[in-house]
Amino acid sequence: VRFGAPLWSVITTGVLAAAMGFGVWNGLGPEFGLGKAGRDVRPGLAIAVTLSLIVLVAIELLLQGRLYVLE
Fold first, then answer.
1. Cβ–Cβ under 8 Å, residues 30 and 37
2. pTM of whole model > 0.85?
3. How many Å apart are CA 35 and CA 53, to the nearest integer?
4. 35, HSE (Cβ side, Cα atoms, 13 Å)
5. Nearest Cα to 23, choosing from 45, 10, 11, 38?
6. Can you say whether residue 23 is alpha, beta or left, with left for phi > 0 and alpha for psi between -120 and 50 degrees?
7. What pLDDT is stored for residue 60 in this prediction?
8. Would you place residue 67 in the very low, low, confident or very high pLDDT band (cuts 50, 70, 90)?
9. CA distances in angstroms from 32 to 6, 7, 8, 10, 69, listed in the order given
């Protein structure tokens, strides 16, 4: 994004890479609810991970520009 890539392409690439990575990472895709044999994901765990992601993104947005030394 910083060098001109559209945001939608970065997000799409990340989502696809994460899904494919879980699928091939030692066959652990079903552990994350992926595929036909996907197991149920515990709602509490999914909420905790989602909240953690929101907090991390908020921190990154607050610190944006302050951590770049080589500008």
1. yes
2. no
3. 23
4. 15
5. 38
6. alpha
7. 84
8. low
9. 29, 26, 24, 22, 37
Sign of the torsion formed by the C-alpha atoms of 14, 5, 8 and 50:
positive
Q: What's the Rg (C-alpha) of the chain?
A: 16
**64 contacts: CB under 8 Å, gap ≥ 6:** none
Tokens of 22: 């879980």
Helix (H) or strand (E) holding 57, with range, is helix 43-63
pLDDT of residue 52: 95
**Predicted confidence (pLDDT) per residue in 2-47, tens digit:** 677 888 888 899 999 988 887 676 666 677 776 676 677 788 988 9
